[in-house]
């Protein structure tokens, strides 16, 4: 038996979520977005096939349809989040200098967030123009 | 000498599983940049039409087809290895002979899916 006094209750340890302070949150989100992306990849290929075939006006109208717009939105957000989580791990594994690491982590999050936002803004414009025509 | 070795990269010959692991990471980074291209495509569709025309011309050209094949290959390699990760998460496929068999299967599936999608697009 451990005779050292335990000053912290098991609840306190669970609440602290370990040294990473996020517990299994990162792992879980990576998996959740991965499962979503398995389903969404089929749609992405369909999107690319449409992009390759349809003239501009028809593509605009196709993507403005609620289901297609919704799936593109889902893809952009899920893939962007999944990529940010993955790039975070790569940075944590290879960048050890604390300032550079923090800068890279902030950069990846802002960068991925920005890319997704630009995509979503484009999508809003597609819905506005393609949905009307 | 066939004693166990520390995985020193210049001495230890990496097994296929290890190659697939590092490839998964590399394709992940590549696909993150691919997301930029996808957003570029969305903006081309949102635009007035010149960008869309240029994009389609590129996609139908030789280099566009090459680029598309490589992008799909990165995508489906990451996809297939990712599915193995999900299986590993529920403790499936860790046995030694299954590891090698699944590695080959994964490569064939990635190549097959890439070719199918490439021909369709």
Automatic annotation (TrEMBL), chain A:
Q: Which sequence ranges are marked TM in the entry?
A: 32-49, 69-90, 102-128
- List, separated by semicolons, the cofactors it needs: heme
Q: Lineage of this protein's species? A: Bacteria, Pseudomonadati, Pseudomonadota, Gammaproteobacteria, Methylococcales
UniProt topology in membrane: Multi-pass membrane protein
Which GO terms of the cellular component aspect does the record hold?
A: membrane
Q: Which NCBIfam families did the record assign?
A: succ_dehyd_anc (TIGR02968)
What are its GO biological-process terms? tricarboxylic acid cycle
- The protein's superkingdom reads Bacteria
Is Cytoplasm included in the keywords of this UniProt record?
no
Q: In which pathway does it act?
A: Carbohydrate metabolism; tricarboxylic acid cycle
Xref: InterPro entries: SQR/QFR_C/D, Succ_DH_anchor, SuccDH_FuR_B_TM-su
Cell location: Membrane
Predominant subcellular localization, coarse grouping: membrane
Q: Which organism is it from?
A: Methylomarinovum tepidoasis
Keywords in alphabetical order: Electron transport, Heme, Iron, Membrane, Metal-binding, Transmembrane, Transmembrane helix, Transport, Tricarboxylic acid cycle
Function of the protein: Membrane-anchoring subunit of succinate dehydrogenase (SDH).
Q: Which Pfam family name is an example for this entry?
A: Sdh_cyt
Write down what this protein is called: Succinate dehydrogenase hydrophobic membrane anchor subunit
Q: Which molecular function terms from Gene Ontology are attached?
A: heme binding; metal ion binding
Automatic annotation (TrEMBL), chain B:
Query: Where does it live in the cell?
Result: Membrane
A Pfam family for this UniProt protein?
Sdh_cyt
InterPro entries from the xrefs?
SQR/QFR_C/D (IPR034804), Succ_DH_cyt_bsu_CS (IPR018495), Succ_DH_cytb556 (IPR014314), SuccDH_FuR_B_TM-su (IPR000701)
Q: Which GO terms describe its molecular function?
A: electron transfer activity; metal ion binding
What main location does UniProt list? membrane
Q: Which CDD domains match?
A: SQR_TypeC_SdhC
Q: How does it assemble?
A: Part of an enzyme complex containing four subunits: a flavoprotein, an iron-sulfur protein, plus two membrane-anchoring proteins, SdhC and SdhD. The complex can form homotrimers.
Please state which protein family the record places this protein in.
Belongs to the cytochrome b560 family.
**What name does this protein carry?**
Succinate dehydrogenase cytochrome b556 subunit
* Organism of origin: Methylomarinovum tepidoasis
The lineage is: Bacteria, Pseudomonadati, Pseudomonadota, Gammaproteobacteria, Methylococcales
């Amino acid at each position: 038996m451990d005779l050292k006094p335990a000053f912290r209750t098991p609840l306190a340890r669970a609440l602290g979520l370990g040294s990473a302070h996020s517990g299994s949150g990162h792992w879980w989100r990576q998996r959740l977005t991965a499962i979503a992306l398995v389903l969404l990849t089929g749609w992405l290929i369909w999107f690319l096939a449409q992009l390759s075939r349809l003239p501009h006006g028809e593509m605009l109208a196709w993507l403005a349809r609620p289901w297609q717009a919704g799936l593109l939105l889902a893809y952009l957000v899920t893939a962007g989040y999944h990529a940010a989580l993955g790039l975070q791990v790569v940075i944590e594994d290879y960048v050890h200098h604390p300032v550079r690491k923090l800068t890279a982590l902030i950069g990846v999050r802002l960068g991925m967030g920005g890319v997704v936002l630009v995509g979503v803004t484009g999508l809003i414009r597609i819905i506005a123009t393609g949905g009307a025509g | 000498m066939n004693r166990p070795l520390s995985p020193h990269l210049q001495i230890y010959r990496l097994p296929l599983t290890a190659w697939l692991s590092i490839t998964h990471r590399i394709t992940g980074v590549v696909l993150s940049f691919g997301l930029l291209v996808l957003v570029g495509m969305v903006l081309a569709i949102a635009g007035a039409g010149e960008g869309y025309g240029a994009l389609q011309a590129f996609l139908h050209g030789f280099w566009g087809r090459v680029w598309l094949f490589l992008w799909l290959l990165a995508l489906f390699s990451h996809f297939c290895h990712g599915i193995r990760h999900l299986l590993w998460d529920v403790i499936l496929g860790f046995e030694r002979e299954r590891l090698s068999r699944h590695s080959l299967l994964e490569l064939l599936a990635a190549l097959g899916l890439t070719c199918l999608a490439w021909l369709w697009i």
